[in-house]
Design brief:
The complex is a heterodimer of chains A (372) and B (498). With 372 residues, chain A is mainly α. Chain A contains 14 helices and 8 strands. Chain B is an alpha/beta fold. The chains are: A mainly alpha (372), B alpha/beta (498).
Chain lengths: 372, 498
């Protein structure tokens, strides 16, 4: 029993799983109950309320008592909210493992959203383009959204490599530039009215309100990210460059190419998140994703990516994103004043880093103990 | 009467190793006490325990009969114990004076009192006879000078015991002599020195007692006059070392593998011509700053501003391109393994496979089985001592780290190896193993260009030695004419006495 536990604890991510479990239990216990109306899905897919008659023979809506946290709808909501951050966090993890930092993700998210939105709008109900099938428009919109995001990543990566300036400075500037461009091309207006099919696709739900597409996108990004980091030679180079750039160069690794690559990946991930949000919310403005970079960095750091580079995993940061999101939604569920949420999340980031240090220390002690 | 300083049953564990195992011995006041042992023998660890960098798992230290247990370097300082490190102990961006007084900056109304700061620094520097401007930035000092400042800091704050960890490993001959004079002066003043080193000559010239550690255990503590270097070496390694002529010398040389023509790089070296043939080990000697490392790095494509020609197997190599150097079969084992050679946060397997990654990749995926097989093959061949191939290289001793840095290029199967300081900071046993390996590689027909600061190493290993002085080739010496005196004269530019 203990041996098995020990094997479990050797995984870096086991601590995060424990935290998630503990958070889940805490939220379940303290969330309290809520009465929600019962819905029924008719043959045409419409959701309608279910009614019943009470003792007096009056028709009243049927309700059930549910745990505020532990119910299907809330969990589905949590999964959806996590997906957006987690997708970007995987990209951020790659950058951080390579020893960099990317503050542009929120701005790329906004710029890619509005560019994608402008294209989708053309093919929507109010658009000028006329086409028989919405697929063409959706593909063009998605292409524009992801393409712009990749270009943004290449732009920051290229500047970092050619100028040799610290990525913090370049991405700080890039953040303002990209959001500025997003503002200029939309004049600050919200862009909506996309092809209906796109929205229907992304909002496609299974079970009790679980948005399938964002969740699956997150899983796919997680798996691809995990394979990239742990199985591909390119991923190994990312760890090498973040661990010791000079030694990586001395080993014949093209450090510039690796750096360019990681910002491209981060940009692409921000683009994927932007595309999901387009479908889910059906509109975009230049103000979207404000402050996302901090949530994403927080998720990566809570998930065990080391800001000094060379350490971190895709699974870790996705779990990190889940923790951040659980805390955000926990604050709502527990009815804590929204204004405290920033304070709490900030504290969690710091606590996570402290715990990580503690865990490293414990691991070292364990090694010492088992060596003899 | 009890001893001045006594170690009693000191035990310390690190991940995977028992660094110190029940070590007990005593040190007399006012002596210079040598601590010697192979890398990983525990000598640095013991010094660090005394200086409060580490704490012992069990056992105790007694100073003048009182048990002391320094829990931090600061606590050790208060007990009168200071350590002079090889690693950066100072803030390079601050001045000598600021660094010396960093723990207790003289203040007036909250502002740093610059006059008092300078005066105090001067007093401290004077205690070690150092003639240094207190306003110099630490980062601009040579290693030797910086060490002097460290000693000044130790003596100036009233240290009675100074632990020196490999103090001469990056000092020039002149700086070493200066340091020895200072150590003798300190000893005359009644200070006690714990001198950790690999260099036998130094210990015998300088120290009064010698303690030999092996694999974390105490082997012997003897007065220097009562022992000899050969005895100490056999105590260290537990077996007799045999000196032998490398086997590759008896072999026929193959064709020229590496040829360098008129290679120049502004400020580093000028008009260098050399060649290395298959099966040959060519040495590169020179004092620090002669351009040795710069030369091998330029051959490897790390210097974009180089001019001239490099030919590998008669094919011209595009200059300044590591990729072309790699494709041509070149490999470079750099001088500073921690900074340039290894990625300490990656494990032995990953470090070994790093340069060979393109050969281990299928469709972008690392072939894990092939990678593990390759890593374990070279770990075995080089006799790397590690709990497992998945152990981080940060946790290995210097000798084993160096072996991994070498294994990286063997795994890539390079034909032309540029090796910069093959055994710096490596213990005697591992040194012998590395020499053996280099000999085997030459016998296999590889071409080796070896840079080293240790002349006996080059003399033992090479067929020819090229001597660099101030970026120029000062001369080339064939094996028959090898002697430290000849080489030294060429290195230093002393006109030939004969």
């Amino acid at each position: 029993m203990f041996a098995r536990l020990r094997v479990f604890f050797r995984f870096q991510e086991s601590g995060l799983l424990l935290v998630i479990l503990a958070l889940g239990v805490l939220l379940t216990v303290f969330a309290g109950k809520v009465r929600t109306p019962v819905f029924e899905r008719a043959a045409d897919g419409m959701r309608t309320r279910v009614f019943t008659t009470d003792a007096n023979g009056e028709r009243i809506p049927l309700t059930v008592e549910k745990n505020k946290f532990l119910n299907a709808q809330n969990l589905a909501q949590l999964a959806k909210d996590t997906s957006f951050i987690a997708v970007m966090a995987v990209g951020m993890a790659v950058v951080i493992i390579a020893g960099g930092i990317d503050l542009t993700v929120g701005a790329i998210y906004a710029l890619a959203s509005v560019v994608g939105a402008l294209v989708l709008h053309r093919y929507g109900a109010e658009g000028l383009a006329t086409t028989s099938s919405p697929v063409q428009g959706i593909l063009l919109g998605a292409g524009a959204c992801l393409g712009v995001a990749c270009l943004c990543g290449l732009f920051t990566g290229g500047l970092i490599v050619t100028l040799g300036v610290h990525p913090f400075i370049i991405t700080l500037g890039g953040m303002a530039i990209f959001r500025g461009i997003a503002f200029v091309i939309t004049k600050g207006q919200s862009v909506g009215a996309f092809p209906v099919a796109f929205r229907d696709f992304v909002r496609f739900e299974v079970g009790d309100g679980l948005s399938f597409v964002p969740l699956m996108s997150m899983v796919v990004v997680l798996i691809v990210g995990w394979i990239f980091l742990s199985r591909l030679a390119a991923g190994r180079r990312v760890y090498a460059v973040g661990g010791n750039e000079l030694a990586a160069r001395f080993s014949g690794i093209r450090v510039e190419r690796v750096k360019l690559g990681v910002y491209l990946i981060s940009g692409l991930c921000a683009g994927i998140a932007a595309l999901l949000s387009l479908g889910y919310y059906g509109a975009a403005t230049s103000g979207d994703g404000q402050g996302y970079e901090l949530n994403v960095i927080a998720a990566a750091v809570v998930g065990g990516a080391s800001l000094t580079g060379g350490r971190g995993s895709a699974l870790g940061v996705v779990l990190g994103a889940l923790i951040i999101q659980m805390i955000s939604s926990g604050i709502v569920i527990l009815g804590i004043d929204q204004n405290y949420s920033q304070i709490i999340i900030g504290s969690v980031v710091i606590a996570a880093v402290v715990l990580d240090h503690l865990n490293t220390w414990l691991a070292r002690r364990r090694l010492t103990a088992t060596a003899h | 009467m009890s001893a001045y300083l006594e170690f009693r049953k000191i035990t310390k564990r690190f991940p995977g190793v028992l660094a110190l195992d029940d070590v007990s011995f005593t040190v007399e006041r006012g002596t210079c006490h040598a601590l010697i042992g192979e890398n990983g023998a525990g000598k640095s660890t013991l010094g660090k325990i005394l200086a409060g960098v580490y704490t012992a798992d069990s056992g105790q230290i007694q100073l003048e009969g009182r048990v002391i247990a320094p829990v931090s370097p600061l606590a050790a300082r208060e007990l009168g114990v200071a350590m002079v490190h090889q690693e950066l102990a100072f803030c390079p961006n601050l001045s000598v004076a600021e660094n010396l007084c960093l723990g207790d900056l003289p203040r007036r109304a909250g502002f740093v009192d610059r006059a008092a700061l300078r005066a105090r620094a001067r007093t401290m520097l004077a205690t070690v006879g150092a003639d240094l401007d207190p306003d110099t930035l630490i980062g601009t000092l040579s290693t030797g000078r910086e060490q002097l400042v460290q000693i000044a800091a130790a003596v100036g704050t009233g240290a009675q015991i100074i632990v020196m960890d490999e103090p001469t490993s990056s000092l020039s001959a002149g700086e070493t002599a200066e340091l020895f004079r200072l150590i003798r002066t300190l000893k005359a003043r009644g200070l006690t020195l714990i001198y950790v080193s690999h260099r036998m000559e130094e210990l015998f010239a300088l120290c009064d007692h010698i303690t030999v550690l092996r694999d974390g255990r105490h082997i012997a503590t003897e007065p220097i006059p009562a022992t000899q270097p050969t005895r100490v070496v056999s105590q260290m390694i537990g077996r007799e070392l045999r000196a032998h002529a490398p086997a590759h010398l008896a072999r026929e040389l193959g064709p020229v593998r590496l040829e360098v023509k008129n290679l120049s790089s502004a400020g580093a070296f000028n008009e260098i011509n050399l060649n290395v043939r298959a099966g040959e080990i060519v040495g590169v000697a020179g004092i620090v700053g002669a351009g040795r490392s710069e030369l091998v790095q330029a051959i490897f494509g790390l210097d974009p501003a180089v001019s001239g020609h490099i030919l590998v197997d008669d094919q011209t190599l595009p200059l300044g391109s590591i990729e072309h150097a790699l494709t041509a079969g070149l490999g470079l084992v750099p001088e500073d393994r921690k900074r340039q050679g290894l990625i300490l946060g990656l494990n032995c397997r990953e470090n070994t496979a790093l340069a060979a990654l393109p050969l281990l990749t299928r469709l972008g995926f690392v072939r894990r089985k092939a990678e593990s097989a390759l890593a374990s093959k070279y770990a075995q061949r080089l006799r790397v001592k590690t709990p497992s191939l998945e152990t981080l290289t940060a946790g290995l001793s210097g000798g084993n780290q160096q072996k991994i840095a070498l294994a990286k290029w063997l795994a890539r199967d390079c034909d032309v190896l540029l090796i910069d300081e093959p055994t710096r900071g490596v213990d005697v046993g591992a040194k012998a193993e590395i020499y053996q390996l280099l000999d085997e590689l030459a016998c296999e027909g590889k071409a080796l260009l070896v840079v080293s600061s240790e002349l006996p190493e080059l003399i033992g290993l090479c067929r020819r030695i090229i001597v660099l002085r101030a970026g120029h080739i000062a001369g080339e010496v064939a094996r028959a004419a090898f002697s430290e005196a000849t080489l030294m004269q060429l290195m230093a530019g002393v006109p030939d006495a004969a």
